[in-house]
Prior knowledge:
By secondary structure, chain A is α+β, with helices and mostly antiparallel strands. Helix content of chain A is 30%, strand content 24%. Chain A has one domain (11-96): Histidine-containing Protein, Chain: A (2-Layer Sandwich). In chain A, strands 1-4-2-3 form a 4-stranded antiparallel beta sheet. The mean pLDDT of chain A is 87. In chain B, helix 1 packs antiparallel against helix 2, helix 2 (78-88) packs across helix 5 and helix 11 (367-373) packs across helix 12. Chain B is globular, with a radius of gyration of 27 Å. The interface between A and B is medium-sized, with 23 and 29 residues.
Amino acid sequence: MRVGIKTHLREIDRRVKICNRLGMHARAAGKLRNLAAQFQCQIKLVKGRIEADAKSILGLMALEASKGTDLVIRAWGEDAEEAVQALAALIEDRFGEDE
Amino acid sequence: MADNRTNIKFKGIAASEGIVAGRAYVISKVRLPITRKKISPEQLPQEMQRLGQAIRDAIRELEGIRGELAAHTSREPFSIIDAHLLLIQDEALWKEIEQVIEEEQINAEWAVRKVVDRWMKVFDTLSDEYLRERGHDVDLAGERILAKLVGHKEKDLSQIQEPVIVVAPDLRPDQTAAMLFSKVLGFATDIGSRTSHTAIVARSLEIPAVVGLERITEQVEDGDYMILDGIEGNVIINPDPSFCSIYQGKKAKFDALNKLLERYAAPPSLTQDQQQIQLSANLEILDETNFLEKYGAEGVGLYRTEYLYMDRTALPTEEEHFENYRKLAEAASPYEAIIRTFDLGGDKFASELKLAPEMNPALGLRAIRFGLRSPQILKTQIKGILRASAFGKTKVMFPLISGLEEVLEAKRILHEAMEELDRQGVKFDHKIPVGIMIEVPGAALTADKLAEQVDFFSIGTNDLIQYVLAIDRINEYVSYLYQPLHPAVLMMIKRTVDAGHNAGIKVAMCGEMANDPFFLPVLVGMGLDQLSMPSRLIPMVRKVLKGLKASELGAMVDEILRLPTAEDVKHFLNARIEKDWKQAYHLDLENIASPDPSFSCQS
């Protein structure tokens, strides 16, 4: 379901690993989606050959990103740099969960 | 009734005691019928507007349910509501629906269904079971939007004015919660077991319920007169007068018994010769604390905490544990509440564990074994228990202990939790009593060693009997071997009680054996200090206890322990009831019974 049109703007990529115990379950996906929605740029989460719109909670859950999953956060647009940083920080902070 | 829809009988699982009769209130779970309509480009803005309004209405409705649940129920079953809210508030989902409306020039209803179906297909292919089930949430969220679009009103259970029997495939937590405040006489559901959500809630509200009826929603019509027997698990639709009067008699007897037992609804619980035995309650959910006083429960002997983990997408937080246990401790006051740490298998927890289905779940990774393997989950719960101990007498109990190492390890986690709370400056009872369940033969046989490390024992007979006799109660071919009076079981119990008393600690029993008056002389004779059971059974045990002499039962137990089979013990006890305890066991119902006028045999 790739709908993004790449603009001339630079594409930002960053690798992250899911490190919370529950992985990207519903609540975590909700947090990520809410954060992604604050940015103008298009953001994808890529797992192998599958990619999901970071602004779609269903897409995020369907990624099946359990603990230990390697993902690439990919964004393009005005605030892509900040968006990628913010999303990576959330994932690395275990979505704010205890473990 | 002229047609053949008279006396239709269903057999299900008796989930909550009691007999009621009334009109059926059927909640069917079929998807709303939706038609596909082409729209013209001019209609497009209007269609988008309809969709937006429906979504906003659905969100408002969900937020309303969430608010009501927060205000009225002690538990927080929010997770399901929250998950639906998350989905409905997803702008990406709206955009997908809008895109379908625009590209295919069709009505909003059809577009919603199409997008929902597409996502359900995606979720169907996922390998993670937890995530795969979220496909169901997508469907429910979609149905909620569709209901707004077509102006369909789901039956609002909180608005039921007439007393009715609710018939449904299954009930969602928000639906059962809505019934807390309405005139529901009973529940009958297609699916479910004694431990399913609906069954637990029905028991906690003392509403009769039969679950696992399989296809009752297909056969019952709204307004059918029906009898629901939550004692034996029967449901009869449109009973003829003769059938009806049989049940009227059964109900009268049940009511008379309850009335008689009201006389035994106050502590203390004493034998004829004034020996006191503590009769406490087993609780499944917090709402059941409402009935502690009604039956004169002397504290909570077993608070099962599994319910806190049910029907949710994320684990309960320390704060949720604390809030729940604090209310429990306050409700149990001035008596104590024994909180058992979760007795669940890994399958009930996080999806990331990916545990293979076990061949022998009863012998597998569950209860304390799972807790020690995932100490963080256990510690979160323990911290909640500790924090509650500042608000009322609280004890902590570990389930399924099989040996000393597990006790030491569990206590180590407890001490870590204490240190962490100390560092945060949080108040709790530093001397909180720590106990263990004795339900594994290995623990019963080494009870003397375990007694040195804990403050109390509680014997879980359901599991102990299964493990001692190697039988699966659920298996109908071997269930006859489930014998509480088997000499081996009695020896295990005796050994546990003696070991506890030698070490100066109290020994309780919280399995089903503790609530059957037939076994009471044996348990008193063995010296059990406390018997714990569902609250409503306490008065009956208290009544029989009153007719027994503790001083002569010790010698009787010695005699019983020499008998070779369970059958011999049974004969022995029956003979004693006939000879010495007739009065103790006699229930004088004849002078109380009167038919319930509300149970009218109409059709």
